[in-house]
Specification:
Layout (H helix, E strand, L loop, with lengths): L8 H23 L15 H29 L8 H18 L1
Helix pairs in contact: 2-3
Length: 102
């Protein structure tokens, strides 16, 4: 069924984290309904809005990293491309920042 996608460990961890976040946010919403608030994002947002914005940003960080990995290898004179775990950590950090301060 999933033969069309390359399920490497980082990809599986990334999608597992997204699934766990969605389940966690659903439980959190039932226990404590969200309120609109204004952070550093230019709009008032709920937790769900910030999660959506953060997930989009995380996906873009990963895509940009994958697209530039060969260039990073060339620019930094590395023997192999940098690990995808770097973009995973950066994207989850960005997601956490948007959830907390956005």
């Amino acid at each position: 069924m999933f033969e069309w996608m390359v399920w490497t460990t980082p990809v599986a961890v990334f999608f597992t984290c997204i699934g766990l976040m969605l389940v966690g946010m659903t439980v959190w919403e039932f226990k404590s309904p969200t309120v609109m608030r204004k952070g550093w994002l230019p709009i008032e947002t709920t937790r769900g809005d910030r999660l959506f914005i953060g997930l989009l940003a995380a996906a873009y960080v990963n895509l940009v990293f994958i697209g530039l990995a060969g260039k990073f290898q060339e620019w930094m004179s590395l023997e192999v491309e940098p690990s995808i775990w770097i973009s995973f950590v950066l994207s989850m950090g960005l997601l956490a920042l948007v959830m907390r301060k956005g």
